Amino acid sequence: MDPSGPSSLRGALLQSLLEALPEGALVLNPDTRVLAYNERAEALLQWIGPADASAAPQEGLEGVKAATLLDAHLLHDTLAEVPSSGGQEGSRTGATFAMTGREGRVLRVQARHTEDTEAPWLLLMERSDDTDRPRRAREHFLRTLTEGMRGPLANVRAAIETITAYPSMESAVEEQFKQIILEQSVTLSAHLDRTLEEYSRQLKSRRTRDVMVASDLLALLRTALQQELGFVVHTAAPEKPVRLRVDPYTLVQALVHLAGLIENAARFTELTCALRPSDTGAVLTLEWAQGEAITEDRLERWLTQQLALEDSVVTTTVQEVLDWHDATAAIIQQEDNRAALQVQLPDT
User: Which residue intervals of the chain bear CATH 1.10.287?
Assistant: First the structure.
């Protein structure tokens, strides 16, 4: 084949486009084998490790079945979901799932359908804990906030200093300075509201609820609890595979925060995390030796406490995270003087 021909040019253009993407990218053929990929994808796949270590390619990913690199069942179901999302809109938004890596972190995979019959699938991959995008969003938020505040604050300060320096000024003049303070305060308040609204909108656009295997969520929760709170954590995965649609980043942070409050009150040293299917989805439980009883009223207060997420400059609450997941939480008294936090999660 002529190396300067159309096919070679098309391949070079595709590779350039892939390398320009901030996410890891895999282009798949109709048989879901890798046609092209970028360096970011290769690094992320090494980070999570293939499902079957013996199937890991020694050199490059071209020709490798995507099912040997990612969770085969999640990939199959996600690709089947994309066309049913509805025409062009479905092609644009795609469908997503999440997996945990060796370090207990989350890899988010989005599948998109292209119009190319030879390369119908594009997989975009990114770590949910990747700090680059949240960092840029925080920097933009702080820059916008400070730039908009500098002028009104200077005017308020000047007006107050003038009133203080001239206590005997005429009442009409003093009223004018007070009006300046009022107007600039209103300007500051409006600017703060607009900036927070824009930042919150950007935050929501980054966070999605992805399909995830329950055992992966439990492993992620166990790692986070042990790292953040230091006590022993046991897990009990369901006997049959259970899939959830969650945002593991916010859900795990909310549960760790809640577990810390419970541990501080009940003083346990071990915690057992379990998950079982239910008629409406799945039930996640965090069980401990009773110690001091936790009342429903106390839990309600904890649910409304402010929670600072690691990637955000604005706060939320555990209840808001539960609402985002259509989930509910309750304290359940168990046998043998044990208690449990029970979180009801909906089906996918």
Answer: 132-206
